[in-house]
Amino acid sequence: MKLYEKLAEEMTEAVRRGVFAAGERILSVRQASQQHGVSIKTVLHAYALLESRGIVESRPQAGYFVRDAAARALAPAAPQPGRNRAPQAAPVAAEVDVSRLVLSTLRSIRAHDAVPFGSPYPDPSLFPWRRINQYANAIARRQASWNLIDDLPPGNPELIRQIARRYAENGMPVDPGEIVITLGATEAINLSLQAVAKPGDTVAVESPTYYAMLHAIERLGMRAIEVATHPQHGIDIEALAQVIARQKIAACMVMPNFQNPLGFQMPDARKRQLVELLAAHEIPAIENDVYQELYFGDARPSTLKTYDTKGLVLHCASFSKSLTASYRIGWALPGRYRAQLEKLKFLNTLTTPSVPQVAVADYLRQDGYDRHLRHVRKVYRQQASIMTALVQRFFPVGTRMSAPQGGYVLWVELPGRVDSMRLYQAALARSITVGPGMMFSTRNDFRHFIRLNYSYPWTAQTEAALKTLGELARRMT
C-alpha cells in the first residue's frame, strides 16, 4: 500500500469510528501533513482518493468535509432490541479481564437504553439533586469571595463538621481531625490501599467481592487472595486466620455492611472478632462502608471502626449511594495512617472541588437528609421484596438468592448449567443488562451467579424484563 493510500484508509477508519461526524470538517492539508509526518503532496493525493470514493467533499476556501451519505454508510449497524443475536460488546464481556467486563456492561446500559438490572448505580431520580444544585449555583454566584484554601486536604471544614456530626448522631463519635475528603469512596479506597501496602503485596478480600476492590488492587500492582464469605455472616474469620498463618498479608479489604453483591450485614460480634484478629497481627483493615445509610432495620449498623482501638481500620464512605452521585463526595477515616493518606491525596489529585463540598454541607445543615433517607430505604426495601418474589416465580427451579439487609442489589445463584456470561449476552440482545458473577472474583467460582439492581422504578417494563430473564435462564437448563 502506498503512503497516500494508507493515509486515506486511516481517515476512512476515523470516519467509521465517528471521530469525524457527518458534515464535519476533517484535518486541513497542513494539519494532516504535520500530524502524520508526510508531505503536503501525499495528503493531497490521499484527500483526492477519499473524494473519489465519496467519503469527503471539497468546499472552496473552507476545506474538506465528511459527506453525510458516507458517514451513514460507514457507521456500524445499531443493535436491534428483540433480535436473537449477541451485541457487539459481547466478545469483550466474555473475557476474564474484570475491568473490561465492567466497562462493557456500563457502556451497554447507556448505549442500548437497556433495563439496568446490571447497573452498579442507584436510581438517581430518588436523589434531591435539584435542591443540591440550587445550593451549588448560589455558591458559584459568590465565587468572587470564595476562599480557595478550603480546597486543599483535608477538605472543607464545614463539610467535615457535618460528617462528624452525622456519625455522632448515629452513636459513633469520631474526631473531625481524622476525616479526609476524597473524590468519592473509590478514591478513599485507593488512597487507603496506597497508604498501607506497596506493589507486589498480597491483600485479602471477600469472595465474592465488589469489583472496585479488585480494580484498586490491580491498578496498584498488588495481588488479591480471596477468602470464603458467608451470605449472612460475612467473611469467614477462621479461614482468614489460616491464610494469615500461611503467608504475609499487607491488608484486608471488606464491606461489613450490605456488602456488594451479597447484601449482608455482618453481626456485631463477628465485626469485633475480625478487628481483633487483624489487630493481633498488625494488619490494617480497609472498610468500604458506602451503603451505611441504606439499612432496612431500625438503626444504622455498627462499623469495624467502632471496634478499632489501635488505629488500624481505614474507614471509607461517600454520599454517592445515598444523596448525590454526580458530585462524587467521599471521605476516609484512616486512623494511624491519616497523615500518609492526606499526603497521598495531595499528591494524587491535589484537591476536591470546593463548590460540591459546600453544597453538600449546606444541604446536610439546612435540609431534611433523614427524611430523604427514610423514603429511599422504604423504596429499596419494598422493591427488594418485589424482585425476590418475582425471581422465585419466574426463574428456573433450583435458583437461590441472597437476603439483602440493606443496599439495592440482589445476588442470584442459578442452576449450575446456566452460564452467566451466555445469559448476559442473550439478555443484552433483548435490551436487558445483568451483572455477571465473574465480575466479582479473580477466579471462576461464580460463573452461574448474577447480580441484579432493584433500585430503579418498578414498572410493567421492569417486570416483563425480569420474566424474560427468567425464561432465558430456564432455556439454558
What is the C-alpha radius of gyration, as a whole number of Å? 26 Å
Query: Which CATH class of the largest domain is shown?
Result: Alpha Beta
Share in β-strands:
5-15%
Structural class: alpha/beta
Low-confidence stretches: 77-96
Task: Calculate the terminal CA-CA distance, rounded to whole Å.
Answer: 51 Å
Query: What helical percentage do the residues reach?
Result: 40-55%
Number of domains: 3
Q: What name is given to the CATH topology of the largest domain? A: Aspartate Aminotransferase, domain 2
Average pLDDT number: 88
- Number of helices, where a helix is a run of at least 4 consecutive DSSP H or I residues: 17
Strand order of the largest sheet: 3-10-9-8-7-4-5-6
CATH architecture of the largest domain: 3-Layer(aba) Sandwich
**Largest sheet geometry:** 8 strands, mixed
General shape: globular
CATH superfamily of the largest domain: Type I PLP-dependent aspartate aminotransferase-like (Major domain)
Supply the key terms.
pyridoxal phosphate binding, eight-stranded mixed sheet, single chain, Aspartate Aminotransferase, domain 1, alpha/beta, 3 domains, Aspartate Aminotransferase, domain 2, 14 strands, transcription regulation, Arc Repressor Mutant, subunit A, 477 residues, 44% helix, four-stranded antiparallel sheet, Histidinol-phosphate aminotransferase
Concise synopsis of the structure shown:
This protein is of the alpha/beta class and 477 residues long. It has helices spanning 3-16, 29-36, 40-52, 68-74, 90-93, 98-111, 129-141, 157-169, 184-196, 211-219, 237-246, 268-280, 338-349, 354-366, 369-394, 420-428, 460-476, and strands at 56-59, 63-66, 180-183, 202-207, 223-230, 234-235, 251-254, 285-288, 313-318, 329-333, 400-401, 409-413, 435-436, 449-453.
